[in-house]
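1st attempt posting a full record on here, be nice pls
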Amino acid sequence: MKRRNFVQRWREWRSSEDSLLNPMQWLLDIFGVSNTASGETVTSDSALLNSNVYTCASVLGGDIGKLPIQVFKKSGAGIERDSSHPVSRLLGTRSNPYMSAYTFKELMEVHAVVWGNGYANIEWETSGPYNGYPKAFWPLDPSKTDVQVDKDTGQVWYVTTLPNGEMRKLKHFDVLHFKSISKSGLKGITPISVIREELGVQKAQRKFLGAFYANGTATRGILKIPNGTLDKTAKDKARDEWQKANSGLSNAHRIAILDAGMEYQNLGMPLNDAQFIETSKFGIMETAKIYKVPGYKLGLTDVKFSNMENQSLEYVKSTLQPILTNWEQEFDYKLFTESEGKKYYTKFNVASELRGDSTSRAAYYKEMIAMGAYTINEVRELEERDNIGDKGDVHFVSLNYVNLEKMDQYQMLKAGLGKEATNEGG
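the predicted structure (as C-alpha cells):
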C-alpha cells in the first residue's frame, strides 16, 4: 500500500511543474528535509552548523563525556567499587579500539542532542575468561538507524545501514540506545523538529549579515536628483559608480563624489534596530530553552554573576541528572547478566560538578567528618590525594552529640552530681 502511494505521488510529481530544484514538500519530508517559513531548509545535519545548536551540543556532550562512570557491587559487607569489571574499562577508559570513553560518551550525547537518539552496537566477547561480557561499543549513524517492532512477536529490532552500505538488523539487547523525550518510548523526538522554524530564521539572519557586510557600507539609502529625470542608461551608470565606491570592505571608508547636485538620503541601518537585536537574542534563548542549557553558556551576558552558581546547580539537577539516569538504567539493563544485575550497577560521579570552590568544599568536608559520615582518607580520595594509612580510616564524631536518653545523666555529670546521685540511687 505504501509503495503504491509513493509511486502514485511520484507520477503526479513528474507530471507537475515541480522539479528536483523545487521538489514537493512530501518528497522533502521523506529524506528528512524541511523548508521553513523563512524559506530556509533545515535538517538535523545542517542544524549542527547553527552556532547555538553547536554550542548546546558541545556543552552537553562535553559535560557527559567528562563525568566518570563507575561500576559498583553490592555485597554482604556493603557497597564497593569494582574497577576490574570489563564494563568499568569500557565506560571509564576505552569504549572501542578507536575511541576513548570520553569520545564515545560525547558522541552519543551529541547524537541525542541533534537527532534525538544515540545508538551503539554492543560487541560481545566470544571466548576466553570474559566470554559473554561486552567487548566494545560501536556507534551507529543515527540518520541511518531506525527502531522497528515485529507485529507478530512484538520483538523490538534496530535496523541500520553500515558505512559500507550493508543493511543490518540488530536485536534490542545488542544496542545501547540513548533517547530524548519520546512519544512512543521507543524512539526519541529530534529537538530540531521543535525549533526548525526558529533555526530557519537564524539561518536567514546570517545570510543577511553576510550580504550586508559584503556590501561594505555602514548604511543603505537612495540617490536623489534635484531636477529632471535620468534615463535608464544614466541611472545604471550612477548606480554602478556608487557601488564601486562603496562595495567591499576595502572601500568602506572611501569618499563618494556626487555629480549634478545628487544627494544621498540614508534609509536607516537595520542592524541598529532593537527588533533585529531582540530577534537574535530570542533565537539564542529559544535554543537554550529547548536543551535546558543556561543562557550564559551560550553567551547571553545579562546574567548576574551571583546567580551563576545557582544556575549551575540547577543545570546539574534539571538538565544533567535526567540524562545521567537515562544512561545508567540503559547500562544496567543491557551490560550485565541477569544474575549480575542483582548486585552490579553503574553510577555517574557528579561530585566534581557539585562541590563548588575550595572554601565551600572545605566547609562541606568539615561537616561530613564531624558527623562521622566521611573519614580523612575518603576526603583525600575525593580530592585525588594519597591516603595517610590506617589511621585515616577512623571515623570521628563530635563530643557535643549525646543520646537523648542519657541527656539528664550527662548534665548531672557535668554538674558534679553524677556520683552522689548514683550512690543515693543504690
